[in-house]
Write a structure and sequence with these properties.
The chain is of the alpha/beta class. The chain contains 13 helices and twelve strands. α9 (187-203) links the parallel β6 and β7.
């Protein structure tokens, strides 16, 4: 494979002149520039893009950390990030971590090694303290409330929107209310659980551990919830589901377990995914595509910023 010395020899110029042509330096004589370009074609020389990026201090690559790609929640986020990246002529490097801390660390190390310009963390297991330790190496943006960490972030107040959904169910006459969650240890999960506990205390309702359904993310988890409810001696009359996928799973399996929605069980989903619109599911609208665009804009900005995005309860036929 030809190197820069081979190009210089073929063009009859110095290595410095070749380098200037490759970097679009304005002070190169036209005949020398043409000779270098001809020599590049003749030798088949391919510039080392990593070396060029290192010299410029920019890779035009933005990393995106997310646990899964096969869930609409994260795919909508990535679509928003990708659209904004294309406008600014950036490319994305996706890190699908499965909530494994060592894989999240690999993404942070890529930032440290200048292999990416900045990093967007959509969801994480690693501590915020560890994340903040890497901010000196490049821009890091979070999709969560960073609690005044020295990092940019965009967030949805999950505590407030969970409270709003619970209040709506209460107004509709429900007192036995359950909810599903994926990870209780996650930032959003903790906010939702705290809202649930505070709501029960506010309304003087009993706390029932059996009304909390964990590790729920996909459609099949919705059926698992309904199966558990069907064999319980004390059943909730309403469920706040982790996402519209889980809500859809509850609804599609309702006839199998002889439940009528919403008469026997009211259901509220989250995110307002296309499946919620198709199945007329009451849900909390979280504009994930727009959030993805915001996250990217923060990732390429020189300033630290905090943005809150409002979530809206959309009432349909499942409550």
């Amino acid at each position: 494979m030809a190197n820069i010395q081979d190009v210089a020899k073929a063009a009859g110029v110095s290595v410095t002149t070749v380098s200037r042509v490759l970097n679009n330096h304005p002070y190169v004589k036209k005949e020398k520039e043409e000779a270098v370009k001809k020599a590049i074609i003749e030798t088949g020389y391919i510039p080392n893009i990593n070396a060029v990026n290192l010299k410029k201090g920019k890779t035009h690559l933005v990393g995106v950390v997310l646990p899964f790609l096969d869930h609409p929640y994260f795919s909508q986020l990535v679509q928003g990030v990708s659209q904004a990246a294309s406008v600014h002529q950036y490319k994305l490097v996706l890190y699908q971590t499965g909530y494994h801390e060592e894989q999240e660390m690999e993404a942070l190390e890529m930032l440290k090694l200048k292999q990416i310009d900045s990093l967007i963390i959509c969801s994480r297991k690693i501590s915020l303290d560890k994340v903040a330790h890497y901010r000196e190496y490049g821009k890091i943006v979070l999709f969560e409330n960073g609690e005044k960490m020295p990092l940019s972030y965009t967030f949805v107040d999950h505590y407030a929107c969970f409270m709003k959904a619970l209040e709506y169910l209460y107004e509709r006459g429900h007192r036995e209310i359950g909810f599903s969650i994926n990870r209780l240890e996650g930032t959003n999960g903790r906010q939702r659980e705290q809202a649930y506990r505070d709501f029960l205390k506010l309304k003087e309702l009993p706390y029932n551990e059996n009304y909390i359904f964990k590790n729920c993310l996909y459609i099949e988890d919705g059926e698992r919830i309904l199966k558990e409810i069907s064999i319980s001696w004390k059943r909730p009359t309403a469920i706040l589901a982790t996402s519209d996928q889980v809500a859809a799973g509850i609804i599609t399996s309702s006839s199998k377990y002889q439940f009528k929605i919403p008469d026997d069980l009211a259901v509220i989903g989250f995110d307002n995914q296309p499946i919620a619109r198709a199945m007329n599911i009451t849900t909390v609208n979280i504009p994930l595509y727009s959030i993805g665009q915001l996250l990217f804009e923060q990732a390429i900005s020189d300033h630290v910023s905090y943005k809150e995005v409002t979530a809206e309860l959309i009432v349909r036929s499942t409550v």
